[in-house]
Amino acid sequence: MLAAAAVADLVGSVEIIDAHELPEGPEPRTGVPQAVHIHLLQTGGIEAIEELLPGSIDLLLAAGAHRIPVTTNVLVYAPEGWYRRWTRATHSLITASRDLTDSVVRAQVLKHARVSARSHTKAVGLLGSRDRITGVRVRKSYGTESELRAELIVDASGRASRTPQWLTGLGINGLKEAASTQVSCTPAASTALPCPPVTGPSSPCRPIRACLDPPGPGASCRSKGAAGTSA
Ligand SMILES: Cc1cc2nc3c(=O)[nH]c(=O)nc-3n(C[C@H](O)[C@H](O)[C@H](O)COP(=O)(O)OP(=O)(O)OC[C@H]3O[C@@H](n4cnc5c(N)ncnc54)[C@H](O)[C@@H]3O)c2cc1C
Fold first, then answer.
1. Residue 20: inside a domain, yes or no?
2. Ligand 1 shell residues, CB under 6 Å
3. For the chain, what is the domain count?
4. Average pLDDT of 196-211?
5. Helix/strand/coil (H, E, C) string of 135-174?
6. Domain limits at 95?
7. Which tens digit of pLDDT belongs to each residue from 47-72?
């Protein structure tokens, strides 16, 4: 959805293809089973959504999301120890269910005059040759296949992406890949801190907790009226 927002003003029209349902509201989606786990947005994500879809964060907060200032009301434990709690918040987290965040983003994107969406439609291959990709082959959930021509294709199908294999099938090999490294993680059900690093010093584990019951470094946040949620 955000990729569609990013290109919508640069192209004639954008068609979003999703293999599963695209519900009207904050309902679960078959294609994102990880949505049952807690999801939060960090400052970079908040700013990116707001830049691409102005007004979305206010809509998200109005729909029930929480903005939690960092690091006044969030406790961070890293391999080096507890992060210092500041008296002034410079960043914030937005906590909401993934379904809620998705629904606000989806509604904002689909308001765009040049953006439309096809649900229950799976991309099953790329069209074209090793010289030029010209579209995607799509299959409806009831089995009918068709071709969708496009000048620009953004694969946002997540970890199930078959694009590398499809490109290889067209004879396209040896492409340079740019990757970003995930540098933080939020255990879905962390009740015991401290948590050791899970993947080595280059990718530290940073469990984040909004409030802990005393005793612990988070004891003071209750007396300041912070929300008693944890992320
Ligand atoms: C336990 C857990 C906790 C997480 N917590 C956070 C968090 O707190 N904050 C955060 O920002 N991220 C979090 N993430 C990561 C986040 O869920 C993923 O990074 C993010 O969903 C990836 O987005 P995506 O759009 O690339 O893919 P996905 O969200 O996986 O979406 C893929 C979409 O593509 C569709 N699709 C798949 N294949 C096809 C096809 N062939 N044709 C058409 N459509 C297709 C699917 O239906 C789906 O809609 C968490 C992940 C996990 C597992």
1. yes
2. 17-20, 29, 31-32, 34, 37, 39-40, 45, 122-123, 156-158, 160, 186, 188
3. 1
4. 47
5. EEEEEECCCCEEEEECCCCCCCCHHHCCHHHHHHHCCCCC
6. 1-119+207-213
7. 999 999 999 999 999 999 999 888 78
